[in-house]
Design a protein that fits this description.
The chain is mainly alpha-helical. It is about 80% helix and about 0% strand.
């Protein structure tokens, strides 16, 4: 009975912290949100509900993305780690995608390249080759943003077989344009419809 009471207490405490996060959002008081989310997550984990903990981190990170993107990034990264331990591949890939996008937004291209490769690895486990193809495009673009043509070409050779015909054609044109130092051809490749319909980042 005592264990049951303690478990309920942990869960209700975590729920209260969840509510405090929403109050902070309403009051535009962002500085406490990460700490509240991490405390709530710890309580959910102690209760045996790590998925709820990861969901709280995700909710808090969404609130912080604009005002404090570096703190949002830390919360998303922890959510990835928790769901990987819990063997929740779908959630892990969702949070990993948010990590990569936010790193690109922050201009952290070296880390973004690593995050995209990690996301590709997660999709390999479920043999989701269509999404791997789209991530291959993102990885090539990030490597080019880093100014590393060799790494971009290597990414294309490694994952290009997961891309569809339009993606392959565009990436070949883009890599050739960089190799030839032809900005007009590069711009033309970047105007490709599927690239323009990717996430803004």
């Amino acid at each position: 009975a005592d264990c049951h009471k303690q478990a309920r207490s942990l869960f209700h405490s975590a729920k209260c912290l969840d509510q405090a996060i929403l109050i902070c959002k309403e009051m535009n008081s962002y500085s406490e949100i990460r700490m509240l989310a991490e405390r709530a997550c710890n309580l959910y984990q102690q209760h045996g509900s790590p998925e709820s903990g990861a969901a709280t981190l995700d909710k808090a990170a969404k609130i912080l993305e604009v005002q404090m993107p570096d703190q949002a990034l830390a919360l998303y990264q922890r959510a990835v780690d928790i769901t990987l331990v819990e063997d929740s591949n779908r959630q892990s890939t969702e949070y990993a995608s948010k990590v990569a996008r936010l790193m690109v937004k922050l201009g952290l291209y070296d880390q973004a390249a690593d995050a995209i490769r990690r996301e590709i690895g997660l999709h390999q486990q479920t043999e989701n080759y269509g999404l791997i193809g789209r991530l291959a495009v993102a990885l090539v673009l990030v490597q080019l943003a880093r100014g590393d043509y060799v790494a971009a070409e290597k990414a294309f050779k490694e994952w290009g077989n997961c891309c569809d015909a339009a993606e392959v054609q565009t990436l070949e044109q883009l890599l050739q344009a960089f190799d030839d130092e032809d900005p007009d051809s590069a711009r033309q490749a970047l105007m490709s419809p599927f690239i323009r319909h990717m996430d803004i980042e």
